[in-house]
Design a protein that fits this description.
The chain has five helices and three strands, in the order βααααββα.
């Protein structure tokens, strides 16, 4: 706070003719509150990542039937035959040693995917505007739904980040090698 005790003269009273009028509640423009507009990159990422994550979770959840020589391996899960030789967590060594990390990761993937599907549902149900980026208009969510979608997106990105750190820590930790 500024001290005026040492000011040489007193202040003059305000002139009522030049004072600003205070806007009343009715004359103010209506504020819609929170606005959330996901970028095109986020939406493209979700439309590509969601099917892949669900495919990966199905492979892990349905093991050993989805593994090589399993009854559901071909044609849907055929690429995992090669991937299981590169990443042992997806192959026979981890499955035969009853390593539960891969199943736990797949379970987290299911929760994560369900959350991202909920985010997309909020976006399509409660978004307004056009879905055209050429004209500079974007689909947005306003008010409560925008805040909820932003909270969903942030919480799920924290889940994705922490799951990635956990996976990297597990892979690079020599004590976790059970295969």
């Amino acid at each position: 706070m500024v001290s005026t005790r040492q000011h040489p003269s007193s202040f003059s009273p305000p002139d009522p003719s030049t004072s600003k009028t205070v806007a009343t509640r009715a004359s103010r423009p209506r504020n819609h509150g929170w606005v959330h507009t996901p970028t095109a990159l986020v939406l493209v990422w979700l439309f590509i990542a969601l099917p892949l994550v669900l495919w990966d979770s199905a492979y892990v959840a349905l093991r050993p039937h989805t593994m090589p020589s399993g009854k559901w391996h071909s044609p849907i899960f055929t690429p995992y035959a090669l991937y299981g030789t590169v990443d042992y967590m997806y192959g026979w060594p981890a499955y035969e040693s009853n390593n539960g990390f891969t199943q736990a990761q797949a379970s987290m993937n299911i929760f994560e995917s369900a959350g991202y599907l909920g985010y997309l549902y909020l976006f399509w149900q409660h978004g307004d505007g056009q879905w055209t980026y050429e004209q500079g208009q974007q689909r947005s969510m306003r008010g409560r739904w925008g805040g909820l979608a932003c909270l969903f997106g942030f919480s799920l990105s924290v889940l994705t980040f922490s799951k990635t750190i956990l996976y990297g820590k597990h892979v690079h930790d020599p004590r976790s090698r059970t295969c």
